Amino acid sequence: MCSSRRTTPLYATGEPKTKNSRRVIRLTGAAVEALRGHLARQLEEMERMGSLYRPGGLVFATEAGTIINPSNLRNRSLKPLLKKAGLRPVRFHDLRHTCATLLLSKNVNPKIVSEMLGHASVSITLDVYSHLMPDMQEKAAKALEEALSSL
Contact, 119 vs 112, CB < 8 A? Predict the structure, then answer.
């Protein structure tokens, strides 16, 4: 019989690992509304649980206010939502990559994307994400052609 035990923590609380980890990020209107709705439901859960609720200042918590096990979050929430939307399974970290790729593909300044991701430098952002957009070379060539044709 073979068994294994996880030796690394599933999550961490405390101070962020770098100075760039603590940052202000402007959210979309839809994200703000979703968070407001989530907060309203969370306040209802707090009231319902009474003294059993463990307030820890978490945005996303169990009904009792404790840290959500990432495996439960992935299997009970993310996977069913992706399936319902007809999307392939992804990890939560893949959502970060999707966000960065979408922003870069919409010509958002790479420095802004880098700041949103908390990268120490824009070169990290470009090294990690620029290969994901093969049409960038074509767009660059067309942009240069347009710029030169107006001279």
Answer: no
pLDDT of 4: 41
From 68, 101, 130, give the residue that closes a domain.
68
Write the Ramachandran bin of 14: left for phi over 0, alpha for psi from -120 to 50, otherwise beta: left
- Residue appearing with tokens 């994307």: 113
What is the spatial distance between Cα 22 and Cα 15, in angstroms, rounded to a whole number? Answer: 9
SS (H, E, C) 84-139: HCCCCCCCHHHHHHHHHHHHHHCCCCHHHHHHHHCCCCHHHHHHHHHHHCCCHHHH
Q: Which residues, other chains included, contact 121 with Cβ-Cβ below 8 Å and sequence gap of 6+?
A: 114
Distances (CA, A) of 149 to 135, 136, 138, 141, 144: 21, 20, 16, 12, 8
pLDDT digits (tens, 9 = 90+) for 18-76: 776 788 889 999 999 999 999 999 999 999 999 999 988 889 888 899 988 888 889 99
| Residue 68 CB burial class (10 angstroms; 0-12, 13-18, ≥19) | middle
Q: Is 97 found in the same domain as 56?
A: no
